[in-house]
Amino acid sequence: DTAVSQTPKYLVTQMGNDKSIKCEQNLGHDTMYWYKQDSKKFLKIMFSYNNKELIINETVPNRFSPKSPDKAHLNLHINSLELGDSAVYFCASSRQGEAQPQHFGDGTRLSIL
Amino acid sequence: QKEVEQNSGPLSVPEGAIASLNCTYSDRGSQSFFWYRQYSGKSPELIMFIYSNGDKEDGRFTAQLNKASQYVSLLIRDSQPSDSATYLCAVTSGGSNYKLTFGKGTLLTVNP
After folding, report:
1. Alpha-carbon B107 to chain mean position
2. Arithmetic mean of pLDDT, B90-98
3. What is the pLDDT of residue A79?
4. Strands B33-38 and B11-14
5. Mind listing the pLDDT tens digit of every residue in chain A (113 residues)?
6. Closest CA to B13 of B66, B63, B85, B68
7. How many Å apart are CA A34 and CA A48, to the nearest integer?
8. Lower CB density within 10 Å: C or N end of chain B?
9. What's chain B's Rg over C-alpha atoms?
10. What is the reported pLDDT for B34?
11. B14 CB-contact burial (10 Å; exposed 0-12 / middle 13-18 / buried 19+)
């Protein structure tokens, strides 16, 4: 009965490859997010979708493309992976509205060789 | 660039003491404030949230907010070794209810 689940948990791949990370939430939330946590543990918002509509799109290379097929799923596709993409990527979800806490998945640790 | 500042620590307290974690933010329009706990290698876990000036208590945790000073804090009473973790302060920013800006976290160590 995991609330926010991401797959895969670990992803090791080579520079230049394309990869996807999937996220699903069973909390009935309307809003989902992608965060990147770098090696210095700094957690930064990348994207957010509310009811399948993109509402936050931070300064992220356009090699990163989110897709939300429905409000329970938010996937992240990354093209032409670079060494600097190595990080932990967290998916999160929340209800819509003011002061709604975000609940995080377990993270996907991406390592680029 | 809207910022959230935290003392990176490490903050070391003895078991049973009060741990005080502080956070300042630059966006005067921030409305909601969150404290997350993150154990090493794990995901952030919500501890508390607050959006009105004053104190909010939940068990051993008390969040304090002063919007005039742009300051939010977390007090942990009767600290336990299991409280040892990185504590992340997060605030809504950019006029959005959804966009959270995180501080870099304070590493807390509770010594038995």
Report:
1. 11
2. 85
3. 96
4. unpaired
5. 669 999 999 999 999 999 999 999 999 999 999 999 998 888 999 999 998 899 989 888 999 999 999 999 999 999 999 999 999 999 999 998 877 899 999 999 999 99
6. B85
7. 6
8. N
9. 13
10. 96
11. exposed
Residue of B nearest to A93 (CA): B98
Tokens (6 digits) for B60? 């051993």
CA distance A33 to A94: 9
d(CA B59, CA B51): 18
| Chain B hits for A43, Cβ within 8 Å | 44, 88, 102
The first and second tokens of residue A45, run together, are 């918002």
B61 touches chain A (CB under 8 A): no
Mutate to test the interface with B, among A39, A44, A45, A58 (most CBs of B within 10 A): A45
The dihedral sign for the CA sequence A69, A71, A73, A78: positive
B101 in helix, strand or coil?
A: strand
Mean of pLDDT values over B85-99:
89
Q: Which two tokens stand for residue A3?
A: 């609330």
| A34 has a chain B CB within 8 A of its CB | no
User: What confidence tier does B2 reach under pLDDT thresholds 50, 70, 90?
Assistant: low
The count of residues in chain A is 113
Q: What are the chain B neighbours of A90 within 8 Å (beta carbons)?
A: 43-44
